[in-house]
């Protein structure tokens, strides 16, 4: 785990960014907030691209910026990979050329002699064979990156012939080949349609999973946060509003004005079971959910983002009801919000669900904190919100 310590101030016109926190980077950390919150500016400060930023930035024991001490490590020397929204591939180079450019930069930076990378062609010859004096770990070798991001068939093509999803895969590969200590991704899916997003998300997961590089991932999409990240940083109006685990942060009622009231909900962890008759069984803390087939093998861990508006509550296990999923739960808290709604927090064997019901329903059912209930989850709440 890497510690990224940031204590910075940035003023640009009417915008002010003030951020002071230590981020424990492991896996994927989402930087989330509405447009104009300062997400991209924060990443640019970390990367050393904001010359007007004041304060201190350090990764582990390596000081990158300290304006009081007149320290400013340039962007190219910070050993990080940056994937922008527009990818910024070199248009005159092929995909292979873009990848080899990054590998050559890493070679020069690490002082490795010529011949570290052998460039092959797109004609089936071996590409990017790795010699024994390469400084990077085997998992960040050029062949490994090409295989993990499915780039082999793209090597001979120019960027202007690629789809948006293919461009982002190449951009991630190029960033990986610089041997980064951390990866910074600035809304890499924002320009993609839903189908392309679904295609590229597994590749984003591989950055941290297959290559062990911690990722800071900027987005304003809650579904992306729930799908990809284990922790999150929440920004609002240039300030740190919250940070912590994704599930805990998204369920906090006081943060819903930032995370979005209509998007409010919870994240459940589950294990996929067998798929039969077009339905997949999911194990949630020993309870079984049945959802339309999700196309993952049994034993795969999945995350489910369940919106509060898709969870109803019953005092008894319902019978002869179209909603098929009923989880036994304990009513942890009842929070009155704007009329006529009430926010309920439910505990399902240690995991939490949010439910939004009316005040009238709370009164008619006689709901009270500590009461055993059943959480009724509509199957539609799972569609498109599964992580494997």
Number of helices: 9
Question: Which radius of gyration do the C-alpha atoms yield?
Answer: 24 Å
CATH C-level class of the largest domain: Alpha Beta
The parts where pLDDT drops under 50 for at least 5 residues are 112-138, 380-388
What separation lies between the terminal Cα atoms?
A: 23 Å
User: Level of helix content?
Assistant: 10-25%
Briefly note the structural class of the backbone.
Answer: alpha+beta
SSE topology sketch:
Layout lengths: L1 E11 L2 E11 L2 E5 L6 H9 L6 E6 L2 E5 L4 E2 L7 E4 L11 H15 L7 E2 L10 E2 L11 H7 L15 H13 L5 E5 L7 H16 L5 E5 L2 H7 L2 E6 L2 E7 H5 L5 H4 L5 E12 L2 E6 L2 E6 L8 E7 L3 E4 L10 E12 L4 E8 L2 E8 H7 L6 E6 L11
Helix pairs in contact: 2-4, 4-5
Can I get a quick summary?
21% of the residues lie in helices and 36% in strands. It has helices at 39-47, 95-109, 142-148, 164-176, 194-209, 222-228, 246-250, 256-259, 359-365; strands spanning 2-12, 15-25, 28-32, 54-59, 62-66, 71-72, 80-83, 117-118, 129-130, 182-186, 215-219, 231-236, 239-245, 265-276, 279-284, 287-292, 301-307, 311-314, 325-336, 341-348, 351-358, 372-377.
């Amino acid at each position: 785990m890497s510690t990224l310590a940031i204590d910075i101030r940035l003023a640009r016109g009417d915008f002010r960014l003030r951020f002071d926190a230590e981020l424990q980077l492991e896996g994927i950390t989402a930087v989330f907030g509405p447009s104009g919150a300062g997400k991209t500016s924060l990443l640019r400060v970390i990367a050393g691209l904001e010359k007007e930023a004041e304060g201190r930035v350090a990764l582990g024991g390596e000081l990158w910026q300290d304006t009081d001490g007149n320290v400013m490590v340039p962007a190219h020397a910070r050993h990080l990979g940056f994937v922008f929204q527009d990818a910024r591939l070199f248009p005159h180079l092929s995909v292979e050329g873009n990848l080899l450019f990054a590998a050559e930069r890493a070679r020069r930076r690490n002082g490795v002699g010529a011949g570290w990378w052998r460039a092959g062609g797109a004609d089936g010859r071996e590409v990017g064979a790795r010699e024994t004096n390469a400084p990077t770990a085997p998992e960040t070798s050029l062949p490994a990156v090409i295989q993990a991001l499915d780039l082999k068939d793209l090597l001979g093509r120019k960027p202007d012939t690629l789809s948006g999803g293919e461009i982002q895969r190449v951009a991630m590969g190029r960033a990986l080949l610089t041997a980064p200590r951390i990866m910074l991704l600035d809304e890499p899916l924002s320009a993609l349609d839903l189908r392309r997003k679904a295609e590229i998300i597994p590749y984003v997961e591989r950055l941290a999973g297959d290559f062990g590089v911690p990722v800071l991932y900027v987005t304003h999409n809650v579904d992306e946060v729930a799908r990809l990240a284990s922790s999150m940083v929440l920004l609002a109006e240039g300030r740190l509003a919250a940070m912590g685990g994704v599930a805990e942060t998204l369920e906090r009622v006081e943060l819903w004005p930032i995370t979005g009231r209509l998007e409010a909900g919870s994240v459940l962890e589950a294990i996929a079971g067998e798929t039969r008759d077009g339905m997949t069984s999911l194990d949630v803390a020993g309870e079984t959910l049945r959802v339309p087939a999700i196309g993952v093998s049994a034993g795969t861990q999945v995350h489910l983002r369940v919106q509060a508006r898709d969870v109803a509550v019953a005092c008894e296990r319902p019978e002869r009801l179209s909603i098929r999923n009923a989880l036994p739960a304990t009513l942890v808290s009842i929070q009155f919000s704007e009329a006529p709604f009430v926010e309920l927090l439910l505990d399902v064997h240690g995991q939490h669900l949010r439910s939004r019901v009316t005040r009238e329903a709370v009164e008619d059912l006689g709901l009270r904190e500590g009461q055993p209930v059943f959480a009724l989850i509509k199957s539609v709440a799972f569609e498109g919100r599964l992580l494997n």
